[in-house]
Design brief:
Elements: H1 2-51, H2 60-74, H3 86-95, H4 105-117, H5 126-129
Helix pairs in contact: 2-3, 2-4
Amino acid sequence: MKINELKLGLVMGEARERHKRQAEVEALLWAQIESTKKANQQAKNVNTAVTGPDEPGLSKMERKIRLIEAAAKKRKYDVMCIPTGGKKALAADCAAPKGSPLATESQFEGAWREALAQKRVRTRRHDDYGNH
């Protein structure tokens, strides 16, 4: 009888330990889920803060140009005198938010060229490099 009680006690102790470990793993998983949700919300907030609220009637190109202008403002650049290396930094900033309309280099370059044509952006050494 004593041996069976000891075995039962060991089994119950092991079950409690398993349950405790399972609860710890669940807590860690929930913490990761919450952390991911928070990171996604922050990324969404950053994207919204950079692009601004959606205004009805804006073209995709206008949204892209405004994203470039907002990124320049965030870096405290004068949009008509972007410093050397600033264009590349702006491209990285604009591509960073998940779902950005300027996620690729070609999307950024297209919007940059249009903004340049509209005289809304310019690099400090624009005349040294030509159209870019």
